[in-house]
């Protein structure tokens, strides 16, 4: 199994979307690249931790390739916005891709470089080495499964549609 960490606004929707895809083996939501050990949701929302709300995604690359994950990720976020996705505003809602695997990191950078010409503005999605990841509180895990009418800036029905062919 391979892993990658994705940040695209509120982590509820990102998890809800990717949980619907074949090849996804396990997910959790948490806080990536925090300057503070094991921050709480409130601390992350204050901006003091520097953490980003992120999805930890384990996948079977024989079923779901990294390129497909990235295509799907970029189809559900606005990669040109800074510290914002939908109604979610703040540094914890910035978009990002994180990993500790340097080959995967380079593949992600190459993917974004090829994607840039499709946008009129610079892609702001950060692609960085994962420094740390702290599991979010239990009530955040699988939030949209527990609360089907909960807020989500992502159209979860997109998970049932073919991946975008652009890029």
Q: What spatial order of strands do you see in the largest sheet?
A: 7-6-1-3-2-8
* Major pleated sheet: 6 strands, mixed
Overall number of strands: 8
Strand percent estimate:
15-25%
Mean pLDDT comes to 94
Strand/helix succession: EHEHEHEEEHEEH
Going by CATH, the architecture would be 2-Layer Sandwich
Q: What is the terminal separation in angstroms?
A: 25 Å
CATH class category name: Alpha Beta
Query: What is the structural class?
Result: alpha+beta
Helix count, per DSSP? 5
- Computed CA radius of gyration, to the nearest angstrom: 15 Å
Q: Any low-confidence stretches, pLDDT <50, length ≥5?
A: none
EC number: 1.8.4.11
Enzyme class: oxidoreductase
Catalytic activity: L-methionyl-[protein] + [thioredoxin]-disulfide + H2O = L-methionyl-(S)-S-oxide-[protein] + [thioredoxin]-dithiol; [thioredoxin]-disulfide + L-methionine + H2O = L-methionine (S)-S-oxide + [thioredoxin]-dithiol
Function: Has an important function as a repair enzyme for proteins that have been inactivated by oxidation. Catalyzes the reversible oxidation-reduction of methionine sulfoxide in proteins to methionine.
